């Protein structure tokens, strides 16, 4: 989904605390995924509310923790040498089992699988991509 196509509910009202926290964490006008989740944890906010607030502020999300977007060349796998990391035994099977009939896997589930296998989230994103598993929806509403 293109940035311009992201949808924020018409009745959504941004929280001024979230807006301020986003402004504090901007780098080159963008909000890194990890920074967005730092706001989630610091304020006890819902991830989607942080994403929607960024959207209403016309702030682009950057550096997805699964490596899906926001890096030179788009994905972060090459930037972080993820392709060279060993894949934990059972990770591919867990991703295959968790995807739905359309071949998609929620971002939150990908994070859970990463934690289960004590694997970097970016590695999980990369392995899902090689298996042609589309990760959606994003917890922050980026896609």
Tell me about this structure.
There is one protein chain. The mean pLDDT is 93. The radius of gyration is 15 Å and the shape is globular. It has helices spanning 16-25, 33-43, 47-56, 91-98, 107-116, 121-130; strands at residues 30-32, 60-62, 104-105, 134-135. It has a two-stranded parallel sheet. A two-stranded parallel sheet has the order 3-4. Helices cover 41% and strands 7% of the residues. It has 143 residues and is mainly alpha-helical.
Strand order across the largest sheet: 1-2
Cα gyration radius (Å): 15 Å
The number of helical segments is: 6
Q: What is the number of beta strands?
A: 4
* Low-pLDDT runs: none
* Count of the separate structural domains: 2
Oligomer: single chain
Helix and strand succession?
HEHHEHEHHE
**Secondary structural class:** mainly alpha
Helix content: 40-55%
Mean pLDDT: 93
| Proportion of residues in extended strands | 5-15%
Q: What coarse outline follows from CA principal-axis ratios?
A: globular
Largest sheet: 2 strands, parallel
Measured distance between first and last alpha carbons: 5 Å
């Amino acid at each position: 989904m293109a940035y311009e196509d992201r949808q924020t509910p018409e009745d959504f009202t941004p929280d001024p605390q979230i807006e301020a926290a986003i402004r504090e964490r901007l780098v080159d006008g963008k909000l890194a995924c990890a920074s967005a989740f730092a706001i989630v944890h610091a304020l006890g906010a819902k991830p989607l509310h942080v994403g929607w607030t960024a959207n209403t502020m016309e702030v682009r999300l950057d550096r997805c923790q699964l490596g899906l977007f926001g890096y030179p060349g788009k994905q972060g796998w090459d930037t972080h040498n993820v392709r060279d990391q060993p894949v934990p035994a059972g990770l591919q099977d867990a991703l295959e089992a968790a995807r739905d009939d359309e071949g998609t896997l929620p971002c939150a589930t990908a994070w859970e699988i990463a934690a289960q296998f004590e694997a970097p989230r970016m590695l999980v994103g990369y392995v899902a991509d090689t298996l042609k598993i589309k990760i959606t929806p994003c917890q922050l509403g980026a896609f």
